[in-house]
Write a sequence for this structure.
């Protein structure tokens, strides 16, 4: 069932039914959802021109708007900046009192005004015209002063505000915000922005942790539990206990990982002759491994796929010549937990 299927057609209908807060909320969401659908359906070549203009400007995207449009503009500027398009927000009133100096040749301006007649934007718009800076307008009125001054106009479709008086900026700001997201993602795609680039701008918090590389979290060198296939099980068990990863990597004479010995392998091989056997006889061949440049979140996904495991050996990837398949480190799920990935 869609939001609109479950909701009264308007806020007035919701109030008339006396169904209470949930009915009002569903009506609001239904109204805004319909507006977003109309916005998507109405996108045309102007959107592509706006992306071209913003993508080819050598400077920054300067976003501006007054009131609620200004709050939306701050979020759009932040989204642009975090996805590879240098951007900043300039308050239009402050622009008239010195902050126009922040807008320099090479910059492009994205101005938001539902009416297109916001007086505080006048000086900023005049500044773009005086210095030939590209201007993209987001407005609901094609005949407004802002639209007529702009190089490209992104027109919001006619849609009622979601409040019962039809006055509070609700639907209009939702459309502005969504259109800003559409611009940011189109620019991100145009620039070939990758997860690696994304992490450079998001080093903190849960997101930054999930975008870390395996090589940043793995244990190296002597910390790795490794042994040869001819290692007696008595020695293999001591090695497993010493390193505390619950497993033992089995490497051939060239140092390549050929198997893994786990607690599960020991249980399956349990018998009176266990200590007399060799590690290579009991090991699981061709174990699951991961490369050092893999994202931590992908390592977590690999651990949870199929039969879940708690440890992955990190090996040199194919193309590493004679070192391909050689263990570079070991990663335990606890390392991901400590880093905030899981």
């Amino acid at each position: 069932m869609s939001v609109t299927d479950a909701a009264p057609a308007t806020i007035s209908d919701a109030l008339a039914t006396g169904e209470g807060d949930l009915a009002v909320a569903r009506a609001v969401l239904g109204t805004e959802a319909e507006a977003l659908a109309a916005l998507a359906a109405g996108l045309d070549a102007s959107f592509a021109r706006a992306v071209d203009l913003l993508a080819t400007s050598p400077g920054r995207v300067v976003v501006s708007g007054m009131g609620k449009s200004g709050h939306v503009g701050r979020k759009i500027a932040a989204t642009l900046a975090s996805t590879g398009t240098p951007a900043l927000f300039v308050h239009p009133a402050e622009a008239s009192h010195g902050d126009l100096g922040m807008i320099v040749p090479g910059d492009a301006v994205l101005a938001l005004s539902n009416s297109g007649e916001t007086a505080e934007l006048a000086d900023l718009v005049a500044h773009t015209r005086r210095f030939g800076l590209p201007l993209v307008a987001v407005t609901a009125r094609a005949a407004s002063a802002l639209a007529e001054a702009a190089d490209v106009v992104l027109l919001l479709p006619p849609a009622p505000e979601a409040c019962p008086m039809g006055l509070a900026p609700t639907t209009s700001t939702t459309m502005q915000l969504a259109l800003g997201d559409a611009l940011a993602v189109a620019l991100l795609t145009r620039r070939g922005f990758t997860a690696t680039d994304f992490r450079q701008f998001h080093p903190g918090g849960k997101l930054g942790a999930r975008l870390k590389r395996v090589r940043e979290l793995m244990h190296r060198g002597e910390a790795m539990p490794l042994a040869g296939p001819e290692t007696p099980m008595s020695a293999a068990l001591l090695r497993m206990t010493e390193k505390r990863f619950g497993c033992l990597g089995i490497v051939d004479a060239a140092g390549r990982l050929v198997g893994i010995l786990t607690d599960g392998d020991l249980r399956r091989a349990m018998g009176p002759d266990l200590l007399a056997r060799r590690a290579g006889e009991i090991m699981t061949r061709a174990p699951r491994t991961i490369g050092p440049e893999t994202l931590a979140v992908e390592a977590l996904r690999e651990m949870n796929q199929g039969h879940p495991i708690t440890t992955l050996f990190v090996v040199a990837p194919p193309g590493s010549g004679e070192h391909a398949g050689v263990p570079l480190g070991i990663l335990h799920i606890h390392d991901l937990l400590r880093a905030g990935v899981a």
